[in-house]
Design a protein that fits this description.
The protein has a single domain, classed as Nucleotidyltransferase, domain 5. Helices cover 23% and strands 31% of the residues.
Length: 116
């Protein structure tokens, strides 16, 4: 019997958050790249990104008999790299991938009133 988990990946401008929960919504753990950062250094560097994948995503790969629904949200320059690594690590475990990013519409502009 497979256990179904949801992997939420939130991309912000300066950070990446990962949350693992079950189908009932109980969170097992959440992590961010900021946990690995040292003082006065940037969070989104390639070395921190590789360490983040090695520490936390490989822990998810060790869970036996599990399937993942992956939900993405937000924009970031590392989003493509993160997706590539998630696909290579969990290629057999992924059930679905959804991107819930909201595009800004900034409202509708009213027509200009005519003056006489």
């Amino acid at each position: 019997m497979f256990k179904i988990y949801f992997l939420f990946i939130l991309f912000t401008q300066n950070n990446i958050f990962i949350t693992l929960s079950n189908y009932q919504g109980n969170t097992y753990f959440w992590k961010s790249i900021g946990f690995l950062k040292s003082k006065k250094s940037k969070k989104l560097t390639l070395s921190l990104f590789k360490n983040f994948i090695n520490f936390y995503l490989l822990q998810l790969n060790n869970i036996k008999n599990s399937k993942l629904h992956i939900k993405l949200k937000g924009f970031n320059k590392c989003k493509k790299l993160m997706l590539k690594n998630v696909f290579t690590l969990f290629s057999k475990k992924i059930l679905s991938i959804s991107d819930n990013t909201n595009n800004a519409t900034n409202g509708c502009k009213l027509k200009k009133k005519r003056r006489l």
